[in-house]
Queue: 3 jobs
Job 1
Amino acid sequence: MRKSALSALLLFSSLTPAFAADDALTPPDLTAKAIELLGQTIAIESVEGKGNVPAVANLIADELRKGGFAADDIVITPMGETATLIATYKGTGEKKPIILSGHMDVVGANPEDWTRDPFTMVQEDGFLFGRGTSDMKFGLVMMVETLIRLKEEGFKPDRDIILALSGDEETHMATTMALADELEGADIVLNADGGGGALDENGDPVAYYLQGAEKTYADYIVTFTNPGGHSSQPRKKNAIYDLAQAALNLSNYEFPVMWSDITLESFRQGGLNTEGEIGKAMRDFAENPKNKRAIKILSERPEYVGQLRTTCVATLLDAGHAPNALPQRAGMNVNCRIFPGVSPDAVKTTLTDVIDNPEATIELADEVHYADASPLRDDVVAAVRKAVDRRYPDLPIVPEMSAGASDSLHFRAHGIDSYGVSGIFMKPTDMYAHGLNERVPVAAVDGALDHWHTLLTDLATGE
Ligand SMILES: [Zn+2]
């Protein structure tokens, strides 16, 4: 049964007393308001092709105006069926701006497949269900309500705080590129669509992950062509054999080991919490990233190999055209996750050397943007430390290089240090971003609002 938006909202209001607990970090009425706005954003199906992103932008703009933003400080720019929103919280201009980055679009969801209507937020079993709750309307709403809270408190930042919302992060990122162009020269990007805290199965905190780097996603198409002919008259030269050899060469190749401040610190901290041989290898690698034994052990683990180097792997094959014909064409897709700072062209050169057959053509499937890792800045780490300590004192803060790309990629490519600093804490087993029955814990709202409030009051007022 589908619940109406109204009955969902009534459910939230009946929840309000839970937030009034003595240990609440955020005024309970603000927490309730954030949940209400989250429900309103979820109700707008801002999926590619539906043309609904501008409606999300208008909703956010209304909320900001009601919360004290001047109409002139909010700019919505249509781009085809989607849009960007830039809202500026004016500061004294002593320092360069902070950008709060988020996206208004969501991945598609088929209501037939969901237990609940994906576009009606429902509160059940301590969770808020709906497409886009975790990716990333939750984070977006936390940033919006925090800016409104700061206005109400009369906060005067020493720099502009610019809310920059993209409208096609899940697909083309054209709006992200436009935002990154327009906002060039900013000091820091804080992205709500990365990082965040992990809880164990008992709900106890494990660590907070601060995302400061992303690997570059790139698909290369490797193709061999051949005049072909009748299969009763085979020749030595065969496109499938050439491709098979190319695939074998690739499987035997390892890209060189690389590291950054982020991966070394991530291994160091991971090593402290990991038992046995693996934990030792992580600590040893952090100590000396040329340690051959550590590299060998970590390279054998699928969950760590991507943190050590660029990886490229054959993922799709497409060869031949008839059972009784010599193949005229054989191709494979090679999916690469490129270490930050390495260009896709350099990877293509490596693939060419590894495949080592002048008859191979190797092409990127799509245009690829790439960026270097952001440095582990003291001011950002200190602000995150302060924010995390308010909920979980002394919880480890682990820097993270993620395998996929968010809006931060394009800001990093414009030279702006960018960090995934989501305020959410949840169990990895509750993560359903992009999947069915996407959800966030209701209990995370209070702490997440406090998290953004602490980050901004710390980073925007300086020493
Ligand atoms: Zn996202």
Job 2
Amino acid sequence: MIISVLTQVFIFYIGGLLILNKKLSIGILIIILNYYSSLLDSIQILIEFGKEYLSAEASYDRLKKSVKDSFLRKKITKKSVKKIEFQNVSFEYEKNHKLFDISMTLEKNRIYQLSGNNGKGKSTFIFLMCGLFKDEYHGVILYDSLEQKELNIEKMNEYMISICEQDPYLFDGTINENLCCKTKKEKRADLRRLLIDFGLFDKINSLDNKFETQISSLNTILSGGEKQKIAIIRTLISDGDVLIFDEPLSALDKKSKIVFQEEISKIKDKIVIIISHEELKKIKKNIVLIKLAPKEENEI
Ligand SMILES: Nc1ncnc2c1ncn2[C@@H]1O[C@H](COP(=O)(O)OP(=O)(O)OP(=O)(O)O)[C@@H](O)[C@H]1O
Ligand SMILES: [Mg+2]
């Protein structure tokens, strides 16, 4: 930035001198400045492309490894879990910048609230738990005494864990498919009740194709809060033993925040993890608080 400003000042200075000496016209100086500006834009695009490329390459390597793992190595398929143990689990994206260092046990029939300032690694911790960085963390993650590294991660995420992401993801398909992709048919009665309680039932029925309306990740039919509600309901009715909600309240209105907490308090036989900066007043007394921080700051 400083270099580009200095270069521009330099061009102006030299250009000014040349114009004064009648060796350059103002028109030519403007053309030179235009070329200089497009050159800067191109350099910027190249730098951005370089960054995007590196990040895409890392994701591609992870994906390749995971596909290779599931095809080549014999992995254990686990469809249910009672207890998840973290033994000195730490992770860093950049060398010597440890996000957290944590030891704890998560058990069924408990609700855990994960807190910590922005950027402390809460979402990363959830990704870790779901097996996204399975060869990159330190420590041990045990699912009922089986090491995560030995488990078939794809199956684990298909059957055992359901996550409501911080940026709710809607895939290309109908509203119905988006709601029911992780649940069995018998949960349809619950689904109707949840849609009514969250104030979505009438909204969906007012659409031309109702529950068969096509939506996508780029959808513009639904508001941010409505998208978040779909992701929450999808997770609430899912069959997995572990339900994770990453900032589920961020786009919800007051009434829906209460509905969410009431629904959470009804859940039985599951490990529930909620990442939130808000005080969950309605379920406060049943919550185990976890603060995510590097070991020296850890207050668990
Ligand atoms: N793929 C990545 N590569 C490098 N650094 C990353 C990557 N993803 C996240 N980070 C960095 O890791 C840190 C933790 O990110 P994370 O999203 O886990 O934080 P968070 O606690 O969920 O924050 P928030 O409360 O804002 O949601 C941040 O500083 C972020 O910039
Ligand atoms: Mg986050």
Job 3
Amino acid sequence: AGLGILLSRRGDYKPIPCIEDVSVPVARLPEYVADVTALIGRFSTKAGFYGHASAGCLHVRPFVNLKTEDGVTAMKELMDGAFGLAVKYGGVMSGEHGDGLQRSYLNERLFGPELYRAMRELKEAFDPRGLMNPGKIVDAAPPDTDLRFGPGYRPYELRTYLDWSSDEGFAGAAEMCSGQGVCRKLGEGIMCPSYMATRDERDTTRARANALRAVLSGKAGKEFLTGNEMRETFDLCISCKACKSECPSAVDAAKMKSEFLAHYHDIHGLPLRDRIFGNIHGLSRAAAVFPALSNAFMESGVGKSMLERIGISGERSLPALSGESFTEWFRKRPRKARVTHAGKVLYFHDTWVSYYQPEIGKAAVRLLEAAGFEVILAERRGCCGRPM
Ligand code: SF4
């Protein structure tokens, strides 16, 4: 939970894992906490602390803006300072997560030349061609190599259709992905159903955010924003919004897909299928004049091949129209049911209730009227798109 709260923070100051899980003997933990707090304070910033105090292991992530030179310098000095504290208290740089690409460069200083040489020889013995995790544990590059964001990072501000102010811009929303890859999990939760089905990195929430970030940061040309590769990257996203609640960084790929599609359709036009589904209320109302005939037609060979032509599998059965629409039932229902002593209730009957499952609306109306409410229908309202 601690990590999720930290990573869902919007803006340029991100919780950087540069100190992360320095671990010290439990008895020295209070002194270490005081020292590391003072160290972070010297850079006029704050940090998130969470972890396993009983094991002397705290995760400490200072907020640093790595899009500036000062931020990169601060990160390196914080790492040096944390290294000094680990040595001072007889601890290690990583008690839980491993050194990775970021902190392995400290290992020679931490373990001394003799032990470091032995570690290098051991790695070479098992991996003479340096294929497995190059640059980790030994022979690491400096910590500011290959930063996701660095001082040269300047995303361009796209004119957007949606309001992205709470993410500090569309680019800010794409930047929320920290690359952890929780969206690749299988067998628990919902995120991400497209990856669970295909097991292809391209169908993860991470890939979608990264693809957008690549365009907005200028790493990929602006034309990629409305290109077919981007469309394919978002194609299988079903906009379920599971990522918004399950991703530790609360990446909202469904909202990003809506923004992307608006730009894509500006260039390529709206496909017929989208026009049909966009007008699902009007089409349902027209088809509901002869519901039995419409249902039979949609299940016929001609109906199926029509669906195939607009990109809907003929093996898929469409929801059947109800014999009587909700509004017809509502108008025809007996007068005596209308008791009104408890007040008025405005009922929004959507397209689904109106033409496909009026039982839902009937049950709601019966319940409200039994409780003494007068039910009024919202006559001028749009379609929420639920039948889609
Ligand atoms: S909204 Fe899209 S990216 Fe997010 S979990 Fe659902 S399918 Fe995956």
